[in-house]
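Margin note from the TA: students keep mixing up input and output lines. Inputs are the sequences; the output is the structure of the whole complex. Example:
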Amino acid sequence: MCMVKTRGLSKYYTFGSGNQVVALKGVNLTVESGEFVSIMGPSGSGKSTLLNIIGCLDKPTAGDVYIDDVKIDYGNAGNLVQLHRQTMGFVFQGFNLISTMNAIENVWYPMYFNKVPKPERIKRAEELLESVGLRDRTLHLPSELSGGEQQRVSIARALANRPRLILADEPTGNIDSRTGKKIIDLMKKLNKEQGITFIVTTHDKAMANNADRVITITDGEIVD
Ligand SMILES: Nc1ncnc2c1ncn2[C@@H]1O[C@H](COP(=O)(O)OP(=O)(O)OP(=O)(O)O)[C@@H](O)[C@H]1O
Ligand SMILES: [Mg+2]
């Protein structure tokens, strides 16, 4: 089955007194279920814009996105919330953990919105932190964790509601290459063992080398 499909996807940003930036120009992208796809391209080429639109964090100016062959209705908040809670997880370059919550709270927080009973969400959050190698860091605040550890917490958080799709925007962008390798290995393992589909934007050659497919985007267009 087709996990993600975009058709004629365009995004224009208007800023200042009516100036326009064309961030995406008619992007047609198809990602099959179980694929690990990397998106590369120069700074400003539209990678984050594409990922944010697929991840329902932003909406297109024109064109459509299909998840599991169903068109996303960007005007329907309920549809977007449902996709976030049931289908996809997002990993950010800057981790975006909640600074006042410790590691385990950050991980069970998305399950709270899915009305998972407390004992169950604590148990799953513990298992997830264990699976990313952070069993002994559950009570640490983000400020008490290294960058690589924070990124592993954010991957555990993205996995909380058992998504079939993970979107990651430069997940190794803010960590050293050795720690980055661990993050890549972890994502590859989740892809291989659990069949989770990954779409990852990156400048990191090691990430691209580990992908099933690399897509290059320049000036808002896929070039190969
Ligand atoms: N909110 C916004 N308003 C105006 N222009 C924007 C906005 N967000 C992004 N842009 C512009 O859209 C283009 C694409 O930005 P995007 O963030 O998608 O690039 P990117 O490929 O992710 O770059 P990087 O590798 O630096 O993260 C850029 O020219 C950027 O300046
Ligand atoms: Mg970006």
